[in-house]
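Write out the bound-state structure for zinc ion.
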Amino acid sequence: MKNLFFEIKYYLLFLLILILLFIGIIFSPKIPYPSDNSEFIEKEVFRSKVLLADDRLSHEVDTNNVIQILEIKKNDTLLNLLKTSNIKDAYIRALIKTSGSEKLAQIKVGDFLEIKKTSFGEPEEIFLTSNELDGILATYENGLFKIQNFSRPLEKLERFASVTIDTSLYESAVREGLSDSLIMDLVYLFGWDIDFIFDIRPGDKFDVLYEDFYWKGNQVKNPDIKAARFLRGNKVFTAIRYFYKDGTKEYFSLRGKNVKKAFLRTPVEFSYISSKYNLNRKHPVLNTIRAHTGVDYAAPKGTPIISTSSGSVSYIGNKGGYGKLIEIKHSEDYSTRYAHLFKYKKGLKLGDKVSQGEIIGYVGKSGLATGYHLHYEFRVNGMHTDPLTVKLPDAEPIGDSEKEGFQNLAVRMINRIDNLYLQIYAAN
Ligand SMILES: [Zn+2]
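---
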């Protein structure tokens, strides 16, 4: 009897605790999202983008001035451009007398001349630039011109997006507000491991941390990826941006492996494979069994052909059935051959250095060929190898002296992506 009483007492106590917990959950004060804290989430797009408060834009915009932007055409001179934009002769004379004006006068077709005038027509700034960012700037102040090299100090805005792919990578990414150039960069970074055209699966996703650049409230130049990762099931591909001391950048995996391969998979864009590597193929012209020791890419006449890796030209000229042929030697072990060309790149000659992706020639049907196509061979130690299945060597990994710095950076980037990802999904 006593035992049963004890059991009931504990049972009631347990029930009471449960009820209290339940009340606690229901009536607990809602914790407001810290929108005014470290991070600011743009409401309408908060699912895909996080704007970071610490580098929000100043929104400094010119309002009182008139800015004319003139694209420089053939036969333009600085003088006639200034005249057509109604700059008074007195200003033009003063400008020409100023030291450095000869640099301003060196205009090239395609450059831009930006003329900023006050509402009274006084020229305040004249900026000659090819990329809208750097150039020669003349400023007029207190009756004097000053001419100098000038780079616009850009404002950087860090952004984050997380995209789950349903139909195509492109459509899914556009829906999340990513620009074409950013999508191209992502395809470039991960295209070495993933075929985005033929091998994209619903549910694949990627996270990308990138920078947008602004000048006085206007977006300028293409965004730049700081870090990105592609997720497929439990496979993760990561790319972290790393700047070398000379300002060049490369992307590496978390382990410091270069995301690029030493070779591009295909030497021609916009083509299809018309004949694979086959050691027992009947030759279409000779009509006898002759091994096909390369891959044929059918493409229209004149389609550019690119070198699949950096190297130097070890053969250029006619060679029997190959027709016009280029051979590139990439290292002691590796070389590639490009045959049946219509023509070579202008000026390309034996011994020239070429870089990966550089145009070396154009698709034709010279030699023994039935239609326009590129015959591409991949040789390892002088032996023919199937270019479609050969395991391509990696590009240079991070150097030993940079390894520690890179790893610290990589950890920070991944933590940042994880944090931003959690914010997006916690807010949903
Ligand atoms: Zn062929």
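---
Residues 275, 292, 294, 296, 375 surround zinc ion (CB under 6 Å).
The helical segments are 2-27, 78-84, 89-97, 101-104, 169-175, 180-190, 403-427.
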